[in-house]
């Protein structure tokens, strides 16, 4: 185990993890223990906002794992994120109990409102956190497995895969908009009260959710590092760069793709589950294809195939979004976002972190050459 | 005293004359019928309605009409009936003359209940069967068909031979058949004849008439009715299928319009243009601007607004397309995923730009007169705008095929698609062809926008709604094949409309998406996959 970790976490990854851990501890501490008058105080608003960014970062990480390392561009990862969110939302709805508007002990408000006689079977068990947490992993994972099994087996690749993943999330969005599906239709699930017995609105809970998100992000990062630095990961990169050749070498390409796709969907599900209690609502618009594509651009900005870049990209772009959409500049946000898509693909195809990496490597190589060492580090395929 | 007695005598004489007059007037059946309204009893009122309706008096229609609207008043003391005009003027129902002086003090409206209201409607239907206006007569016939009121039979029998309008005559005959069918004392032969007439009609109304046959009907009548029902249901199923097929064709043509430009940029060039929907939107906004300019400067030209908008929309969208190709896409050839992201970003920018210039609300684009309205074909309604859009789509499709097949540009385009390097060494300027091809695909999207502006909301989000569907069509039909796009679009359109009645609009759409996803598993390269070397390129 220790061997596995030391092999997969290089110095850069360790430094990154350390930085994440520091933020994960510092932010809740500054929010909870520092008096409000102090300049070091962080508001609960800030904590919830950055907690949200961390969930997006985990989503970006899951996309980077399949896009950056396996060449699968999923334009429907928002679907897995939202499914995880719905699973958590169902748990939170069951926790409301009699405190809802209609004070029904079992049925959520929207079901009472729609005259549902009893709880649908698929809502059973969601009053238990452990069951809900299991579903957060199972539902997106299962969907990804079934979908991927069909798609990869018949060798749907490249843009075709991108388009059908987009169709998948679009179909789910249309489905979840329907009232009779039993997930609250248009309005989704909201008005949450408790999570594990703690008030979701309380600053302490928010700080804890922030720390949990950070923990999930770090765990996701470690898992991704283990995957990509293993032999398995090398095969993934081979598939990304030359799928047919990898197949000819005797690897079961679809099995590799399926496994990593399912893992990535589970990570996205966890991100969604952590996202919902922090924003207090989940509705079908989370399934909209636009959201999924936006998540892809976070990865592209940060730099695909870098993992750290995905995390930084998600936080940076979302911070930019908050900054723009909350002020007088709001009408221009879509220009900025659209421009970002164009500029990054045209001018910065490696992304921010990828470009820094690239220049850093070149610089090191030049120095090594200057020092007379005639050894060139192998360049990974772009 | 004397003056008083004189006046008294005069009064008595006057009363005597009046009484003589009124008894003289009251001699007819119409006047007797009117009296029944003064009894203030529902049963008497029914008698009154029927008697008035069959009296043949010129005032009958007016009286029943007033009764329906609660404007028929009566005075129990004076045994008189009045009609209140819209101007509050009272008219004596017996004579039709305005009432002078004060009305009786106990005047009150004749009361109705629901049972009476139906009878009133039926009576009115029977009365207006001979109205001078053909439209009125048709409505009356329909009313009788619905009410099946036996009292109307007499009026119908009078009206049918006199009727000159063929459509109204048919309606009258059908109404008569409906009445006969429900008449207790009609012979079986009459009833079977009536069933034959209703069977001819063959719609939901006919089905309801035959289905609601009273239980005391004879076996022969029942059998005839059952046969007729089966036959009508068959023909209705046929018309429903035809209607669905028509809706499907209409949807298919819209899908084809939206996808056909994509078939060029994605299918032929292999460029994923997520901003394709925005080209459609630009075309729709061009139509809007053209109509605004025409409205402001030369309203007489309004019917030609689309003819002006079509070339303009093609040029605007095509020009923007060429700009996009030269500015962005040419740097991204061979990197389809990056192209996808960049063009998505572009679509956001274009949407926001249009929203900034024109505002976020829907714009009003009107149908020219030759595109509004509809006509009936058998039992389906065909609207002109849908029909024109199908025609327009097919014309564009044919034009595009011809362009690819017969022009030098088409030849060069196909050459570049099939083997870029070889085409370049033959002296074709491939980058110029790329730009023009992309411009062509975008221009066609602009044309689609002109058509869609006629049936959809013109808003900045117009294109977004079509992009996923368009990709589905192209992928389903097979990339790089225009015929595949045609078949794909119409198949999806018709399948969608046939699924809708069973699954609802949203579930139908989901089902289609799932089916396409499954279909791609089976045939990853679409319905009409390219075969041979071109596949590897």
Please describe what this structure looks like.
The complex is a heterodimer of chains A (382) and B (537). The model of chain A has no long low-confidence stretch (mean pLDDT 89). The radius of gyration of chain A is 22 Å and the shape is globular. In chain A, the strands form two sheets. In chain A, strands 1-4 form a two-stranded antiparallel sheet. Chain A has a two-stranded antiparallel sheet with strand order 2-3. With 382 residues, chain A is mostly helical. Chain A has helices at residues 2-8, 11-32, 44-70, 77-96, 109-113, 129-153, 158-176, 203-229, 231-241, 243-248, 253-279, 289-302, 308-325, 333-347, 351-370, and strands at 189-190, 194-195, 198-199, 281-282. With 537 residues, chain B is mainly alpha-helical. Chain B has 20 helices and six strands. Chain B is elongated, with a radius of gyration of 36 Å. Classes of the chains: A mainly alpha (382), B mainly alpha (537). The interface between A and B is large, with 43 and 41 residues.
Percent of residues in helices of chain B? 55-70%
What is the number of E strands of chain B?
6
As residue ranges, the low-confidence spans of chain A are none
Mean pLDDT of chain B: 81
Q: In oligomeric terms, what are we looking at?
A: heterodimer
Query: C-alpha Rg of chain A, in Å?
Result: 22 Å
Shape of chain B: elongated
Please give the order of strands in the largest beta sheet of chain B. Answer: 3-2-1-4
Please state the overall shape of chain A, judged from the principal axes of the Cα atoms: globular
Helix and strand content put the structural class of chain B at mainly alpha
Share in β-strands of chain A: under 5%
Percent of residues of chain A in helical segments? 55-70%
Distance between the termini of chain A: 31 Å
Tell me briefly what this model is:
With 382 residues, chain A is an all-alpha fold. In chain A, 69% of the residues lie in helices and 2% in strands.
